[in-house]
Structure formats: structure tokens, C-alpha cells
Amino acid sequence: MDEDDIAAEVVAGTDAITVPEELLEESPVAAANATLQQLIQVMGVSEKIKLALRGNREARGQLIRDPNRLIRRFVLQNPRVTDDEIIVIAKNRTADDELLRMISDSRDWTKNYQVRLALVTNPKTPLPLALRFLASLHERDIRALAKSKNVSGTIATQAKRLVLRKGPQGG
Questions:
Q1: Structural domain containing residue 48
Q2: How many CB atoms lie under 10 A from the CB of residue 162?
Q3: Could you read off the pLDDT of 115-171 as tens digits, one per residue?
Q4: How many domains does the chain contain in total?
Q5: Of 34, 58, 81, at which residue does a domain stop?
Q6: End-to-end CA distance of the chain
Q7: Chain segment 4-13, per-residue pLDDT in tens
Q8: How far is 53 from 24, CA to CA, in rounded Å?
């Protein structure tokens, strides 16, 4: 049985994988992160997949940093992932380019302006994807990108072109 089969069973609710119930429920008061991290470290791959697909915000926050790319991918497939979590991932300069690609391919997430801005400013975002969102940014953000040293040269050059096309007004 491969990981996708396990994920399909978890989503369908037909799996026999057990995960501590407190990690599945969204609660305002969660277990301490150190304890959560220790619990996750001793879990097997199938348990981590279930937790990634069904876990609460704290569990997702830990699993998005898991060394296994597959686990990180399943975190993004969790139906309870919020736009705020996606923005944090998109801003993270150590984020995996596969995660950034998944975020940029989702219309639901890229409807959010902050997600698009985070993707364009993250140097790990694949260049064609970052360029795709550049023109949809506000003029003040494009001007800032044109002057920024923290983005790729191609993004800065394209931002300068967009600023010149729109004219010198605004600052």
C-alpha cells in the first residue's frame, strides 16, 4: 500500500490508523509544542499522513516542517488549512519549491492578495510562477520590488518595466 492509498483511506474515513484525538480537534488551548513535537517524532509515516490530513493547526504547523516532502504535501491538502497558514508558508524562505508550486496552482489561495505578494517576494518561488503574479500586485508593492535586493534580478527588472509603463507618478 503506497502513501496515496493511505491518504485516500484517511480522507474516506476507512483507515485503521490511530492518532491521539487531541491532535485532531481544533482547540484554543493546545498541548505544548515541545510535547507535540515529541509525539510527532515517534509517529510512523502513515500516522503522520493521517495527522497531516486531519490534524489541528498546531499539528499542521509542526508537520509542514517535516523532512518528508510527502508529509508536507499532505498538510496542504488538509481542508482546514487557513489563508493565514498559507501566507506564512508562502513567506517562508526555507519553504520547499514544491509547496510554493502547489500554493500558486490553487485559485482559492491565490485569490488572496497577501498570498500572491508572498509568492512574488519569496526567492524560492519558481520564476515563471512569481512573474505570473507580479502584474496583479498594487503599484506601491511593484515599486518596492523594483528597488528590492531581496528578490531575484529578473523579478526586480520586470517590476522596473511595469513601473516605467505605468509612468513616473506616485513617488
A1: 1-81
A2: 17
A3: 999 999 999 999 999 999 999 999 999 999 999 999 999 999 999 999 998 766 554
A4: 2
A5: 81
A6: 59
A7: 887 888 777 7
A8: 9
